[in-house]
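Two proteins, back to back. First:
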Amino acid sequence: MNDELTLLAEAGAAVVVTAMATDLWQSTRDAVLGLFRRADRSRRAAIEAQLDGNAALVAEAETPEEVRRALFGFWALELVALLRRDPSCREGLARLAAAADGAFPDARRAFAGRQTNTARDFGTVFAVQGGDLHTHPAGPGGPAGPPDSTGPRPDGPRAR
């Protein structure tokens, strides 16, 4: 799945969990169920039960934002799977996310991942968030170390 559809699923998930236990929950719930309209009856029933159960968890929680953060990943995966099965849901999910932007302007930002990567000495960091990263080791004749003159010397430790 391309990054655009993954971002759309994440935006939809942010809307779903942010709306839980708010005045906009019923309309958001109905919109999400509408996205699953082509699923079989048992799948729709399972999604409806999941939505209702998750909303109850948020409503009853001492720290609703922590529960929302925990549920975000589940709904992002659920919506990615839906988009894979039924790409025609893309427009409906985009409408849901766009309509909720006015009501929940910080929803997407609240669920954005935070990542800190640090490399020390001659370490290398290969990091990615929300996608794939493919690395290939240097082959024969490839880089042996940092290109600057403070790097390791072939005949021993670094000169200082």
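And the second protein:
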Amino acid sequence: MRLFRVQSLQLQLALSLAALYVAATAIAVAGLVYQAYSTADALSTEDLNRRARHLASLVTVDTAGEYKVELPDWLASLYRSGSFLYAARHPEGKVVAASNAEVADLVSRLPVPGDQPAYFRLRHFGASERDYFGLTAGIESRVGPLWITIARAADDDVLVQSLLREFMFNVAWLVPLVVAATLAIGVVAIRRGLRPLRQASAKAATIEPGSISIRLPEENVPSEVRPLVAAVNQALDRLEKGFAMQRQFTANAAHELRTPLAILTTAIEQLAGSHDVTMLKSDVARMNRLVEQLLRVARLDAIALDVSTPVDLCGIAKDVVAYMAPVALANRRVLAAQGTERQVLVKGNRYAIEDAIRNLIENAITYAPPASEIVVEVDPNGAVKVADRGPGIAVDERNRIFDRFWRGKGSQGQGSGLGLAIVCEIMKAHHGSIEVGDNPGGGAVFTLVFQELHQTTTVWQSG
């Protein structure tokens, strides 16, 4: 059975800190309680010694040489109550005074202690069968050395016990509050200590192929984590270098291919017309389109698009439709624009948006049946739709059609599988999205969704 493991570093530190606080508090409380009871015992012992010395000072010798103890009234009543017991013995062992006969008999049978005080306990002593704690100590008095025995009833320290219980009660409710407050302060301190890590994580989340030059901040990072951050930045340096080499290779390869293809195209145009020449022209046109698309991909990968300029989707859509209309007519398709009467402003790059719409129109021309209509519609909410009457896109292929060089089974035309990938990259650069759905009545609808800047209701006027 696998033990539960906490994945959160902050929670691990908080739990460890809580365990440390609880253990330290338990030790501190145990020490305080022990010290409190030790102090109470020490005070009780000191009280017995003080009473023994006081009692020794009250022993006198009369003219007949007899020892006697003259107790003040308040002290005599205290000993009569049974809360305290006393006895005074001559060094020879004779009891010269005692609180009662039972105490005198008991003390007379006890051995004479040594130089140090002897402590004892009495269980169920006397008629009241009370428990006592006491001591016997040798004390120098004005009548000579005496052995004084003093005992206190065990239930007589009610006040001390009450104070100790009150102390324990106060500790019992105060300690959890102190632990909770300390733990809360600790958690806040941990969160502040981990703030650089959260900032580095937020920075890392923004890194993508188009912004691979971003690096994680190393300042204010804890020294324990700084080597990890530095290693990640070094890995990003290597990745950026690899991406740059790959992009440069793609751009160079595409650029180098343009010149021989242009020469080849010119040479083929000069050949006499035949079926083979027509096939060669088609192949060369396809290669020219592929090279042009590779250059577009390389530019998109290598250069960050400036998408901060306000542009009008309606104007862009009208220009692209006007530009592509002859191509559509040459391929026996009808190209129309809708919703372009009003401005729809978004932040973006005009040339990249033109490229995206043109790619969608070219794709629609390729797959739409002859004599069908292709509609480019601008939505007032900041979207451009390109709808055709082609075979549509299968649901299970809609997540793959934007992959580079991917072509579905049974694809028509001589495309390279880069057109929709270029459109997808352009929309990512604009922080927008591209959606594909079914066109009512048959076909597919591609929707470019932009972040709308604002729109006006100004109607376009010709002339």
